[in-house]
Structures are given as structure tokens and as C-alpha cells.
Amino acid sequence: MPFARFTQGCFKALALACACTGAALAQLAPPFDENSLRTYVSQQVASSNGEGVTRFDVKLGIVEAQPSWALCRRTEPFTPAGARFWGRSSLGVRCVDGATWSVLLPVTVTIWGHGIVAANPLLAGAVLMPQDLRDQEIELTREAGTLVRDVSWLTGRTLTRAVNAGQTLRPDMVRTTSVVQAGDAVRLRLSGPGFTIAATGQALNNAGAGESVRVKTELGKIVTGTARDGRQVDLAF
């Protein structure tokens, strides 16, 4: 037999074998119900993510078929130990009727929700005002760290770094704006039923509104109170 004809015959046989193998693997697909798997992941996402989530998308990957799948008549999904359905993750599927195998399916969960972003470019040191902030839907699974979802929480705080318009804001990007600084002369106020006592002192630390501040009085005594706007410190009665 001519070598060319022999080679051609080998290639045809190899192609036929590959086709048969592919068909066989297709028959080995387990009884995965894609809709039920997606529903399972969606339920887990909904239960583990509370307020702030507006919508999410679940995409299931595929794995190579295994001969043991043919023995399985029914499967059920499960969450692998330590797994979190956030971004790229894994979904467990195990056979519960006919075999004892389990497999991990790749799954990608994209989640959107509300967050506060900068309405315009802001410099480090800027004291945030409501007009500087905007509530916007963002892709939460692309963000690192905790986001802020309350404009009032950010209002009055000072940026520790410059941000671009549309950039999401996190708690570690701001600090409380000091209403009292160490060395400031402050007014002390002690109020009770039917009386108010006022005095002066010197602040020993920086403090934002509502934060604790230590003050040295004119008599040299150290007291602790609550910082207020206008370099005022309220003492507890």
C-alpha cells in the first residue's frame, strides 16, 4: 500500500476515534440541572448579602466529563468549605443517587449595589460636603474593602487622599475632622438639672465632634469630656 494512502487512512481512523470519544463523553454528562444550580447560588448570594445589593449575575463554568458520571441518576449542589459566592468561586455538586462522586464547578458571581462616590475630583485634606458626594450603583465584586453607603456618615469628614470623580469611597479614605486640636484653649461646660457651670482649659489631644478629649483645667486638673463645635467640651454630670 502506498505510504500516502496508508497515512491518509490512519488520519481518518484517528479522526473517527476522536469523534467517537467526544460523543461518548457527551453521553457521560451528569444530571446537572443548570437552572437549579443557578437558583441555588442565587439563594446563597441573596441570603449572605444584605442591604445595598441591587442585582447580581451568576455564570456557571464547565468541567471535563468523567466515566463515573454515567452511573449517577441525581445530583445536588453544595457550598464547598470556605467558599464564598463572590467573584470567581466554586460550586460543589455531588451525586446522591447511583454513585458517590462529587465535583467542583467554576462559578462567577457578579454583584452590583449602592455605594457613595465622589461627585467631582477632590484633593487630600478636603472636608466633604453633600454636594461632593453621590449615591451610585457600582459593581461591588470589583471593589476591595468596605464601602460607604451613607452620605451623612461622610459629610464633615476629611479626605486623607485625593480622589477622582466617580471613585468609590471607603472608611479608610477619610478621618474625622478635628473640632478641637491639642493645645487649643477650650470652654468647658457642665450642665445638670437647673444649672450650668462654665470654665476654661487646654485640650491635650485632637478630637472630632462627639469624640472624647482630655482637657487640663486652669487649676491643673485633667478632665475628660466630649468635643463639640466651637472648641467647646461637654463634661458628664
Could you describe the 3D structure shown?
By secondary structure, this protein is an alpha+beta fold. The protein folds into three domains: 28-111, no CATH class; 112-175, Antifreeze-like/N-acetylneuraminic acid synthase C-terminal domain (Type Iii Antifreeze Protein Isoform Hplc 12), CATH 3.90.1210.10; 178-235, SH3 type barrels (Roll), CATH 2.30.30.760. It has three helices and 14 strands. The strands form four sheets. Strands 1, 2, 3, 4 and 5 form a five-stranded antiparallel sheet that branches. Strands 9-10-12-13-14 form a five-stranded mixed barrel. A hairpin with a 2-residue loop joins strand 9 (185-192) and strand 10 (195-203). The radius of gyration is 32 Å and the shape is elongated. The chain starts with a helix and ends with a strand. Mean pLDDT is 84; it is low at 3-28.
The helix content is 10-25%
User: Low-confidence runs (pLDDT<50, min 5 residues)?
Assistant: 3-28
The radius of gyration over CA amounts to: 32 Å
Strand content: 35-45%
Class computed from helices, strands and strand pairing: alpha+beta
Compute the separation of the termini in Å.
Answer: 110 Å
Order of helices and strands: HHEEEEEHEEEEEEEEE
Average predicted confidence as pLDDT: 84
User: What can be said about the biggest beta sheet?
Assistant: 5 strands, antiparallel
Count of spatially separate domains: 3
Number of helices: 3
Number of strands: 14
Shape annotation: elongated
